[in-house]
Amino acid sequence: MKEKKQILVSISGPTAVGKTNCSLSIAEHFKTEIISCDSRQMYREMKIGTAVPDPEELDRVKHHFIGKLSIHDYYNASMFEQDISSLSAELFQKHDILLMVGGSGMYLDAVLYGIDDIPDPDMKIRERLILQHETEGLEPLTAQLKTLDPVAYDRIDMKNPKRVIRALEVCLSSGKPFSSFHTRSIKQRDFDILMLGLDIPRETLYERIDKRIDIMLEQGLEAEARILHPHQGLIALKSIGYREFFQYFDGKVSREEAIHLIRKNTRQYARKQINWLKRYKSMHWFHPDDVDGMISLIAQNQK
RNA sequence: GGUACCAUAGCUCAGUUGGUAGAGCAACGGACUGAAAAUCCGUGUGUCCCUGGUUCAAUUCCAGGUGGUACCA
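Predict the joint structure of the above. Result:
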């Protein structure tokens, strides 16, 4: 008895392009479930600013990973990759098609290619390096990396503090060069991955972004941010929509400026997402309204 | 209708004592292996309103036109 092909259908696209709506229709058509590939919708305290599907939408189709974390939890792309590996194994028992929906590029990479097994970050070392960067600048760190891992030194952007600190912390905690952990291989999986990308004209996208921000403000984004303000140092709260309100609460900008910044940063974020997604040669691009087109492409791939 | 002022990047405006121009805000391009909605790198995108005149050379000076603003009728 021949089994039907199992496909993980990834639906991605820039923020506000219309992923939720179109993925609900597709999931209903295939009577399947949705796994979120959105690094911020996982935090249950951040609902309005991350535009999670509303309760009625969550009721229509079973969603996974939304609200599974607290802002106080540590999480990363590698953990996401592990989570999706085990969850998909479980869900493919019931479904031949699974939807993965979201625009977090690095998480997508982790699913599509796998992510190398690198020792977990040692937070003490990381904090020490961050402190050193603040007090002495980037220079000593890049110099140290050059001796510990010349390969990484050549490969990594030496002007980017986060990259330099990351490489160094792995070298220091493992005793081996950071670059030695990179296998540059693609992980084999027992299911196919079909990449769908949503795209609309830039101008329309920006209109949708503005509209969405208006809705967030109506829904009480400011109040949500106010509650989270005491925790503004957390990584999760570096998110757009929150960090700008924190600047306002801290008296650094006016409320009007903060909202203006939210609009601008969201547009820039959307551009970066588009830029990231353009790299996937296997991406099939669709207008979000073309649900039928996506459904027939998925059906074709099942054969 | 008259007078004055203005017209330069997507927007607000600088500027060139005549040698084809630059700020802010926007916008755009790119990188990415455990912080990724993070972080980092890069780009001026222009018929200087139009037509003619003076000049080796006009976005700049002159004339006319067009559009705008203010005031007077």
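Chain A has a mean pLDDT of 95.
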